Every structure is written in C-alpha cells, then in structure tokens.
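hiii, so i know i said id send this last week but things got crazy w the move. better late than never?? heres the sequnce for the chain we talked about at the cafe, plus the structure i predicted for it. fair warning i was half asleep when i ran it
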Amino acid sequence: MRITELLTKDTIAMDLSSTEKNGVIDELVNQLDKAGKLNDVTSFKEAIHNRESQSTTGIGEGIAIPHAKVSAVTTPAIAFGKSKAGVDYQSLDMQPAHLFFMIAAPEGGAQTHLDALAKLSGILMDEKVRESLLHANSPEEVLQIIDQADDEASEEAAQGVATDNENSNEPYVLAVTACPTGIAHTYMARDALKKQAEKMNVKIKVETNGSGGIKNHLTDEDIQRASGIIVAADVHVETDRFDGKNVVEVPVADGIKRPEELINLAQDTSRKPFVARSGNKASGQSTSNEKQGVGKTIYKHLMNGVSNMLPLVIAGGILMAIAFLFGANSFDPKSSEYNAFAEQLWNIGNKSAFMLIIPILAGYIARSIADKPGFAAGLVGGVLASTGDSGFIGGILAGFLAGYLTLAIKKLCSGMPQALEGLKPTLIYPVLSVTITGLLMIYVINPPASWLNNTLLNGLESLSGTNIMLLGLVVGAMMAIDMGGPFNKAAYVFSVAALTSGNAAPITAAMIGGMVPPIAIATAMLIFRKKFTKEQKGSVLPNYIMGLSFITEGAIPFAAADPIRVIPSMMVGSGVAGAIALGLGSAIQAPHGGIIVILGTDFGHVLQSLIAIIIGSLIAAIIYGLLKPKLTQDEIHTSEVMND
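okay and structure toks below
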C-alpha cells in the first residue's frame, strides 16, 4: 500500500500552531476529524494518549508518529503536520520534534496500521526527505515528496529481494533489527544499515522482528554464506542459529547511529566466533566480541527484572495512595474510618500488585539469563524469597540462581537422545530447574539472605537525627546522579525493598530527591531567563509537571547537553531535599506518584515535604544558573532562526 493512499490533501495540517505535545495531538486529531476519518473524536484522542502513556512515539531525528488502532476510526488515514520551531515531544533522543505523522487505523486494520508505520519509519530515515518536508510550503508539495520517497523505497526493496535470492558464494552481511515496540526503531535501523551497505558496496539482508512478526527471515543458507551477522536489538531475538558465526550484538539505536562501524565489524572474520547458549548447541552461553563485562552483564539482567517489576510498583503505589485519601485507616475493617471501596483498592495494590513484585523481579532476571526455560524457576524462587523473609535481596539472588541453573541444566541435557527433544522445554527443564531452585532457596539462600535483610532493616529502623538525614542526603543525591540510570535505579530498588518491609524513610528520600531535578531546571529557566533559549524555556511547564509527578527523566535533555554543570547542581539540591524531608519527619508510604502519593499517604507532613522540595529545587536551580554561562551570539542566532 502506498502511503499517499492514507495521507491525503485533506489530512495535512501543514504548519502547526501548538508549542506543546498535547496541542499537537489535538490539532492532528481535529484534522482527521475534519477529513471525515473518525466517528468518535473523544475515543480516538483517548486512544492516542493511552498509547503515549505506554512509551513516547517521538522516535527521534525530529520525528513523532502518534498512532492508534480503535473502532473510533472510520477509514484508515495518516495526518501530517510540521513545526519549524520544534515541540518538546519527550522523544527518545530528547530532541524537539518537527515532523508529525498521526496514524489512524480501524480496529480490524492491524496490517494497514503496521505497514504504514514501517514504511514511514524507513522513509523518514532519509535526512533529505526530512529536510524537504520541513521546508514544504503546501500539501501538494508534501504529497509529492512522500510519493517520490515511496517510489525510491519500493525500488530499493525490489533490488534487495534480488540480492537476497542470489546463489553466489560471495560473502555478504546479515542483520536482525528489533525494538521493544517493534515499530519505528526496528525499521529505522533496518534502513540505516541498508543505506550504509549500499554506500559501501556491501551486500546485506536484514530481518526485522517487528509488531507484525518476523519479516525477511534469514534462512540457513543465508547464515551459512554470511561473513557476519549484526544483531541490533533491545529485546530478545533468536540467536542460537548463528552458532559459530561472526556476530555483532548491539542495541537497536546503534544500528541507526553507527551502521558503518557495525558493517565493518561484521566483515571482520578474525573476530571470535559466537557460541550459542541453547542446550542443543556445543556450549552453554553466548559470547561475541561485543560481549559486555561481568558488571554490565549483571546490570543488564537486573534491569530486565526491574523494568518488568516497575508497572506493579507504580500501579500498586498509586492505588495505595488513593486508599489513604479515604482515611489513614480506611482499609482496616476494625477502624472507625473503614471504607469498603478503600479496602478493595488496598487489597489490589498492597496484597496483589505488591505481592507479585519480588516474584516478577526474580522471574524476569532468570528469563533474561536463560530465556523462557528460566522464567518458571525464577518465579518460584521469587515467591520463596517473599515467604522466606529474604525480601528483595533473596529475590535478586533467586533470579540469578534460577537463570544460571537453567543454563547448566540445558547444557547437561544437550546429549540426550533426539527423541526426547520435545520433552525438554515442557517437562525436563521446568521440573529440574523449579525443584533445584526451590530446594536451594529454602535450605541455602533464604537463611543468610533473611538475616542480611533483617539486619539491614533493623539498621534503618535505628537511624535517627543526624544519621537519618545522612541517609536522606545519600539516597536523594543518588536519584540525581544519572536520572534513571544505574545509580538512580539502585537507590530506587533499595528504597522500594525497604518500603515493602515497612520502612518508609528511603523511599521518602528517593521520591523527594527524584522530584527535584525537573523542578530545579524549570525554576532555573525562570530565574535566569537570559541564559536559556526560547526553545528551552518552552519546557518550563512540562518540567514542573514531570517533577511533581516524580518523573526525574524530565531533566535528562539538560543533563545530556551540559553534564558538568547540571549533574553536580542537581545532586546537591536532591541530596539536601532528601535530608530535609527525613529530618522533618516525612514518611511517604507508596513507591511512586509524586505529589499525589504525598497527599494520599503522608498528609500530616505535606508541608514538610513541600518545604524540602522547594529548598532543594531552589538550591539546585541557583547553583546551575550561576554556573551556566550566558548564551553566545551563535546560540541566540540559532534560536531565533529556529523560531522564525
């Protein structure tokens, strides 16, 4: 299907007037409605916002592709709009978005929806296309640019098929691309690699693991012929088939940003061959020359568990906060404040979502290590950690134990008769891994882990005065070191662990400290207005909203652009805020939600918490503002040009 079958003159808005994300969405939705593509504007807009809440559709390179597939769409369509000044769309590369394509697909139009996204993502990888669209002056010109790019893409695809089917023994490169949503970055990486390979006169075949399934599948013949294989993916892809080949494993973003380097590595046959980790292969673990160090590998597996645990933490925490709004003891049937609805919210949040946190953490750590066979053992190990009083420490140990134990079992079973191959994933692996993990957790892991967990919690309980303020200083500062990175996540996981065991001090410091950076950045832009561009000052309100919502990542664009000044300033402010909050007795009882959970779970200390946030934010803002130099003439000129 051609893109201009969906993108038509009446769905093009051209120059957008909005300067913020929600306004852009409103304009594009209205354009689709005026074109008669929608039967329920409210439902469609709600679906767009629901999709944005899952992860931003600002895919980087100045592009945003909001999309939804709902019954509110009458006819599949694409709306287009542009903003030369740029809009803070919370894009993946933290840069303003200038080109906007909104895809509307009816509920039964899955393939149309995905094909359109894939085509758009590929075409928009071409810088010339983006530049032409940004300077287009009419809908007709936009359609002409898209049509021409569509033609060129179709020609390239046809040539690519011919290349893939050649039976020549000439070496060539393979690639697999995959991103978490399976839409934009999957195809952007594919096209970046193909375009670079063409420039280098290198033959390439790219398999995409997208939302629509695996496309352009790499055959055994392809793999045998290939000089090397690039795996640019942020999610699991099947790599056992590449056993013994030259494999380059990198994040999907690297496929977009450094395709030339990856293609060169894939052609370097002197690199150490990849060793599959499947039990039916020669070895038990994957390796490549891109292999990460032990520390990074452990961190990767741990973060896989944390990322899958966080939705439960956030949902459970918000529900607990809402229950607190009915009264401090509203969920207790014995209390005079008892409210039946509040009790159910509490049961869902605290007794359901929170009960799953440690098992999910352990299960996904194990799955990251050993794929699906490790998941069941990880879940069971996590449950035993919870019931055995070893908490998060036991859960983390359970995840790693189950994962590596499953890998060992797969390796030991590799020599079993072929007739038993089908029983391995359904019977042999789960029975052995669950049994051994369970026994080791009960008799070996839980006793010392429980002692360590209780010792840590007792130590936290004994903190008071200067000591508890020192805890607040350290935890608060850690939340601002990398704003969502390893230090931030370490502080947060520690704080959630303490909260689930009844100690609210660490999560209080973590939340207060994590709220400071976006608020401080916004405040600095108000106090030191002449030191920031008009484009930067456009993010004042979003940063205040993100800060009050405990979304520390709102400060990342500024930290990335000026880390030497921003990070130390934010660390000081966040540390001071955490120390003040604990010193004044704040005790937030939920792990996420910002100002909502402060009001809901610690209403008696709202003033103290606000004082801590305000003082910490002012300190960080003033330090950053004083350190930041004045804008240069070039920066002023560039800002003026972008806003013309």
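btw The two ends are 36 Å apart (CA to CA). thought thatd interest u
miss u guys!!
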